[in-house]
Structure formats: C-alpha cells, structure tokens
Amino acid sequence: MIATTMTAYVRPSDLAAALTALQRGGLSIVAGGTDHYPARVGGPLTEDVLDIGGLRDLCGISFEHDRWRIGATTTWTELLQADLPPLFAGLKAAAREVGGVQIQNAGTVCGNICNASPAADGVPPLLTLDARVELQSMRSRREVPLGDFIVGPRRTVRADDELVTALLIPHGTDAVGAFRKLGARRYLVISIVMAAGVVELDATRLIRTARIAVGACSPVARRLPLLEAALLGQPIDGAAERVRPAHLEGLAPIDDVRASRDYRRDAALTVVRDLLVDLSAVAA
Fold this sequence. Notes:
The protein is α+β, with helices and mostly antiparallel strands and 284 residues long. It has nine helices and 14 strands.
C-alpha cells in the first residue's frame, strides 16, 4: 500500500462546486488519473486532489454553433465509439495508441493535453484540427488555441483557479485526417516520433488546405507551416515525394533513452511522408 500524506480529496458533483473548490488554490486536478497516479508510484501523495471524474455534464461529444465540443471528462473510448466525420480519423487513430483498453476507458482527451507531455499522442491531431481549449473559473470563461495553451513540457497557461472544461473544434465539411506513430514496438509504447495531418481537396484532388503537426520532436508538438504552404495547390497523389528536410524546420529533437536526436530527425521525415501517403489513400 502506498503511504499518503494527502490532506484533501475533493470529488464535486457539479461544475459550480468544482470551480468553487479551485478558488482555494493548491489542488491537483485529475479525471482518469492515468498519468497522475503512475507518476507517484512508490511515493506518498502529498498534494490535495480535485477529482472531476464525476462531472457527467462535462462528458460527451456534441456539435453546436458550427463546431464540435469534446467535454473535459470524455474518455478515449468514448471518442472511439462516437459517430464522427472523416475529419476526426487522425484523432481516432491516436486514441487507439493511448495505452491499452483499460487506459483508454479511464483516460480523457482533455487530460492528455493538460498533462502536456512532449509525447502526448493526442496533441498533434488536435493541433491539425485547430482545437481551442475552453477554460472556466469563478471569474470568467475563456478560449485559448491549443498551440498557445501548451507552453512547454508539463506546462500550460491554465491558472490555478481554472478548469479545462472542453476542447472546441471547428467544423470541416470535406476534410480528412490521419495519424502515424513510431515507437520501439507496435503497441503500448511512448512515441519516438508521431505525425498527424488534415487535408481538404478540391474536385481535382488538389490540396485546398493542409495542416500537418509532429510530436515527440520538440518540447511541444509543432505544426509545420513551411510544409503546409508548399502543399497548397499541389496534387495529394505524390505529395509525400515533395517533402524535404527543410520543411521540418522548427523541430528540435533531443537525445533520450528512446532515440537519438539524429534518428528522430530522420524518422520524422519518413513518418511525415508516410502520413501523406495515408492521407492520399483516405481521401480517395
């Protein structure tokens, strides 16, 4: 049994109670707890915990006001089971890579971004979906683009009295998404490199819009604006052959136990090319 010196465990039944509790400060927020508790195995739980897992009004996926809403307690399994357009194919593919089924049943999509790991599988596809993060406190409600929400490894712009209540994703009528992940093995592994993409084509299969993001190769996952600009107006067929190392400018891979910096840089180029092959196939 893990020893604990935790002084408070708060599990509110509604959003108002959760926001009221956050005003006291010093609370660690958990929903599924799939990152929070494993990170403390063998050590005492010293911080106070706000468990929002019981907030059912924050669970589920809905479409309102021309955008999709993924509530803060929505699990990966619930995302996989949802009837969503091809725009979400990349995010669903990433969902299948988030641990095993038990983790997918408990872990939440919003928890993945709040954890702010450089290797968080959900962040690259959410970046390509132009996701915005909804935050609420007793003071106000605000929205922040996901690219501005995560500011470094394990760091976000969430204030101590704020709660992430949803992810908001604009409607993309004809867009399709895809996701690619490279790890040391096929399943149950932290990413060495991952890439996600969303493209929209015109009637002649020319690329009308393109959003490409790479994760696990920088302190935070990054979009590839040079590649996105180069793809505009080009045929989706054969797009992979036009990807150059210069298109990945802005990535900053590191050496760690999973891979070297040079390997990650080379692998990112291959993974992005494979991603574009996938996008060509799903857009057929």
